[in-house]
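An instance follows:
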Amino acid sequence: MGSWCFLGLAVVVSNAMENLGVLTGVPFGHYHYTGELGPKLFEVPVLIGLAYFAVGYLAWTIGTILTGPGRRSVATPVVASFVMVAWDLAMDPSSATLRGRWVWEDGGGYFGVPLSNFLGWSVTVYLFYQLFALYLKRWGPPAGRQARLAPGCWWSSIIAYAVVAGDHVVNWVSGGHDGVPAQVTDATGRVWRSADVYEASALAALYGMGFLALLAALRLTVRGAGRRASRIAPAGTTVTNSGERASGAG
């Protein structure tokens, strides 16, 4: 049930905010979608809402790992929104400026993408994350039960997020996508070197997304070590979050 709720919130909120953005420029800035992504729901391709859901779920899971299941009401939506926007930092310049999937009508300093886009992303994903957190607080499973999920459920999201990041690194190493010229011109007439855009996307993926995936992996490893230690700890001792034993004696 929770997965369907997350899907509904991600698709509805993202499509509402994206359509608002296309029509008014709020909150992302002035832009429009081309026909590269297929059928649209009003002004926004159907695939956009599904992308918010798919990567948004990975970002939510990583945010939960980083903050702990017990802090999902406030901390997890905030942290997960940063994890999600880290993806857009890697993805937007190549998708918009190089591949023309959408057009930033006023350009922007980040290889044709404006700062307002990333602020708009932060607001949009935070909204459906916070709504989902409220749903979990009212109808979701206890945080303790979520913490006891099989490790594979957590690791699969970390690995998938790392694979998404790795795609941008591979694009840079391989020289980019077929059909992309050596130089591109954005809507304001500014010329960008495609190689520079691909390199910037790889840097954002490696040191933004890659760092977050690594941090989540380390957190999960330490947490697993702590649980294993607690199962074998002698009577009268407790185990700290780092897995170290502490005597219960005064």
